[in-house]
Design brief:
Layout: H1 2-32, H2 35-41, H3 46-52, H4 57-64, H5 70-77, H6 86-95, H7 100-109, E1 120-121, E2 136-137, E3 147-149, E4 161-163, H8 164-179, E5 185-188, H9 193-207, H10 209-215, E6 229-233, H11 246-254, E7 260-262, H12 269-272, E8 280-283, H13 286-295, H14 299-307
Parallel strand pairs: 1-2
Antiparallel strand pairs: 3-4, 5-6, 6-8, 7-8
Helix pairs in contact: 6-7, 7-14, 9-10
The structure holds zinc ion.
Length: 310
């Protein structure tokens, strides 16, 4: 009797041990299938794995095909990292001399490709955040329906037009500058597709495409067609001297408060495709302008990260 119960207990214990053993083996097998295990095996740290784990399975699978690369972790840590560009970042980093921060900015705005290639339609549903640059183009029929005339009290020449929002923001800015004894004058504003076409083609026929591209936007690619871009001057200034005037310095410190940004800053030509223009301002609204001002980025970068969705 006693002996039999020992046998039964023995069998039960044996079965339990077997089950536990099998469960343990299954657990190990399953763990070996996890990304954590695979990344640790590639020599990534636990800290790295946490960051890698925030990525989609598609990106993780791609990373597993590569050797361990600590640039990948730095890349994920980049402030404006957008996962859909992951492979493009790595490829461009390999082939260029730019650092990772620049690579992220360049790929985000599409400037790892030649300007005027791979162009897309501007998304005109974005209001004051419509992006028009060397990759985003407006139709030849695009004219904002809310364009209004600028009083010649604020401009050089007749027939200057901007959107109503841009005008109101400019007037606020104008008045504030005036209080400080400064005068902001709109020198150029809305330009239709046809006008831009004429300007561009004049340069092109007289001095060739390369020169034309260096100095003017191709038709459909000019921000002036949005009615939200203004070229600002003051009494006695010219494009090449505006920077020396107090009006320019004032704009540097204050334009964003009224929703304007210096659209083509110094040393950002590789992103904007335009040489520095101290006179060209773009209305983007106070929120975007403030962010752009405080973080020292271009509108192109802002758009890629905050406005454009996939
Ligand atoms: Zn301009």
């Amino acid at each position: 009797m006693k002996k039999r119960s020992f046998v039964v207990i023995g069998i039960v214990v044996g079965i339990i041990a077997l089950i536990l053993g099998i469960l343990y083996i299954i657990k190990i097998i399953n763990y070996h299938k996890t990304y954590e295990y695979k990344f640790l095996k590639l020599d990534y740290t636990k800290e790295d794995v946490k960051k890698l784990d925030t990525l989609s399975t598609e990106t993780k699978d791609y990373i597993l095909t590569l050797e361990k690369n600590k640039d990948i972790i730095s890349l994920i840590d980049e402030k404006y990292f957008i996962e859909k560009h992951f492979k493009e970042y790595l490829d461009y980093y390999k082939e260029s001399d730019y650092d990772l921060t620049d690579v992220v900015a360049i790929v985000n705005v599409g400037a790892n490709k030649e300007f005027y290639t791979d162009t897309k339609k501007s998304d005109i549903s974005k209001g004051e955040l419509i992006l028009t640059n060397k990759f985003y183009t407006l139709d030849n029929t695009y004219n904002s329906d809310q364009m209004i005339n600028v009083s010649n009290q604020y401009s050089y020449g007749e027939n200057q037009m901007v959107t109503e929002q841009t005008y109101n923001a400019f007037l606020n800015m104008f008045n504030k500058a005036k209080e400080e004894g400064l005068t902001l004058i709109i020198n150029s504003s809305f330009r239709s597709f046809e006008e831009q076409e004429e300007i561009y083609n004049d340069y092109k026929s007289s001095r060739g495409e390369e020169y034309a591209d260096s100095i003017a936007a191709r038709p459909g690619h000019s921000e002036h067609q949005t009615g939200m871009a203004i070229d600002i001057q003051t009494y006695g200034s010219r494009a090449d001297t505006f920077e020396e005037f107090d009006e320019f310095k004032w704009l540097q410190e204050n334009a964003y408060k009224y929703g304007f940004i210096l659209r083509y800053p110094k040393d950002k030509e590789y992103l904007t495709g335009y040489d520095y223009e101290s006179w060209h301002y773009r209305y983007v609204g106070v929120d975007a302008a403030t962010y752009i001002h405080e973080n020292n980025i271009t509108f192109d970068e802002y758009y890629a990260y905050f406005v454009e969705k996939d």
